[in-house]
Write a structure and sequence with these properties.
The protein is α/β, with parallel strands linked by helices. The chain has three domains: about 160 residues, Adenylosuccinate Synthetase, Chain A, domain 1; about 90 residues, Adenylosuccinate Synthetase, subunit A, domain 2, CATH 1.10.300; about 160 residues, Alpha-Beta Complex (Adenylosuccinate Synthetase, Chain A, domain 3), CATH 3.90.170. The chain is built from twelve helices and 20 strands. It has a ten-stranded mixed beta sheet, with helices on both faces. Helix 2 runs parallel beside helix 6, helix 3 crosses helix 4 and helix 5 packs across helix 6. The radius of gyration is 22 Å and the shape is globular. The two termini are about 20 Å apart. It binds guanosine-5'-diphosphate and magnesium ion. The site of magnesium ion (MG) has 6 residues, from loops.
């Protein structure tokens, strides 16, 4: 069984939490895109963990975790993440962690370039996480990337790196006027953290191919959501990689295989980090209250997230591009304080109402049409069946299900592993 767990919205839907929950049925968990700009929070009996690079399955004994070729990996950050897990006595070994030799290394100069560019843009900035993600993906496609597998031979690595750094300095030194990138320093960094990463380097494509032949269950864990996909998201306010399920097998290393199932993680309200159009955004006290109650501060950066009501056009679009077969609706409990629950049911674009998510500049002109549903005003964090929920909460779920047209299979009512309802069909 090949299952992708993906975000329907702008990210931070609770993917880490759902992967942690559902991973018990899977042998292998794969991250297939993105880098350490991700922040996946997992709370379970072993504590609270924030993972940036490692697949969330690392917290489950008996699962093998894979970092696929679609990822960009800051190996210093990875070394730190592994170290922090070991401190909490979580096993990380070549037995349960495999890193694709084709994944690209995010280098210190990518971070530097990211920061230089954000500073150059000043008030026009994109809201980058400043972790080098856009520059490293740009280099990958310009074929100027260093791959994880390059760590296996420092001599050829040095040669490759020299050519790339000469080229990079055309930008860093000659373009931005910053201090030039130094070959020795970069090489030293690569060797230092390369030694830590080396034992995990694997021909992941072959490994996963064999695993599928043995009938292993594989889960593909996405970073961010549909609306941040480089092609289908709110470009240019997107991430620099493909967050959609169609890329899962490709970024993992088995592009010829087909997914059996796509689980879309969808939040009971909206949140969005950084810049870009966010049609139904709330402001002022209303926003403050939702942000506080939902704990909407970036897991990777601590930045306050922008918040809004559940957005039907955006979510319907997310469900479509993700090809979601079933939905996990998360953070329903957060809405408990509301007397009436706002939902953005349609957009108005140039005087016309629509539930289609507009593309291009039309999105900037879209205005939200809000409807209100009765609040449920009750702590639902202990609910474990649909019947445990107040009828207003059930009505809210049904409303969302009908408006978006995708079946809701799981409802998450707290951050803890067991805090969920599985809807029996
Ligand atoms: P991800 O990037 O999609 O993995 O999501 P994040 O970890 O960035 O953000 C989700 C946040 O919501 C985390 O702090 C989770 O612990 C928390 N969370 C997840 N599901 C629920 C839920 O059902 N209720 C509440 N109250 N919090 C949740
Ligand atoms: Mg997150």
């Amino acid at each position: 069984m090949l299952t992708a767990i993906v975000g329907i919205n702008w990210g931070d839907e609770g993917k880490g939490r759902m992967v942690d929950l559902l991973s018990s049925k899977y042998d292998i968990i794969v991250r297939y895109q993105g880098g350490n700009n991700a922040g996946h929070t997992v709370v379970n009996e072993r504590g609270k963990f924030i993972l940036n690079l490692l697949p969330s399955g690392i917290l489950r004994e008996g699962t093998v975790n894979v970092m696929g070729n679609g990822m960009v990996i800051d190996i210093e950050h990875l070394a730190g993440e592994i170290e922090r897990l070991r401190e909490k006595e979580i096993e990380v070994s070549p037995e349960n962690l495999k890193i694709s030799e084709k994944a690209i290394i995010c280098l210190p100069y990518h971070k530097e370039q990211d920061i230089l560019e954000e500073e150059r843009l000043a008030d026009k900035k994109f809201g980058s996480t400043r972790r080098g993600i856009a520059p490293v993906y740009a280099d990958k496609y310009a074929k100027k990337g260093i791959r994880i597998g390059d760590l296996l031979d420092y001599n050829t690595l040095e040669e490759k790196l020299k050519g790339i750094i000469d080229w990079k300095n055309l930008t860093i030194e000659k373009g931005y006027g910053a201090n030039p990138i130094k070959l020795e320093e970069t090489l030293e960094w690569l060797k230092k953290y390369g030694e830590i990463v080396k034992p995990y380097i694997t021909d992941v494509s072959k490994y996963l191919d064999e695993a599928t032949k043995q009938g292993k269950n594989i889960m593909f864990e996405a970073q961010l959501g549909a609306l941040r996909d480089i092609d289908f998201g709110i470009y240019p306010y997107t991430s620099s990689s493909q967050t959609i399920s169609a890329y899962a097998t490709c970024g993992a290393g088995i592009p010829g295989k087909k997914l059996d199932n796509v689980v879309g993680i969808m939040k009971a309200y909206s949140s969005c980090v950084g810049e870009g159009p966010f049609t139904a955004e709330m402001f002022g006290e209303e926003a403050e209250r939702l942000r506080e109650t939902g704990g909407e501060y970036g897991a990777a950066t601590g930045r306050p997230r922008r918040v809004g009501p559940f957005d039907v056009p955006a979510s319907k679009y997310g469900i479509r591009v993700q090809g979601a077969d079933e939905i996990a609706l998360t953070k329903l409990d957060v809405l408990s304080y509301m007397d009436k629950i706002p939902v953005c049911v349609e957009y108005e674009v140039d005087g016309k109402r629509t539930t289609d998510f507009p593309t291009g500049d039309a999105l900037n002109r879209a205005k939200p049409i809000i409807e209100y549903l009765p609040g449920f005003k009750k702590d639902i964090s202990q609910a474990r069946t649909l019947e445990d929920l107040p009828k207003e909460a059930r009505a809210y779920i049904k409303f969302i299900e009908e408006k978006t047209g995708a079946p809701i299979r799981y409802i998450s009512v707290s951050p803890e592993r067991e805090g969920y309802i599985e809807v029996k069909k």
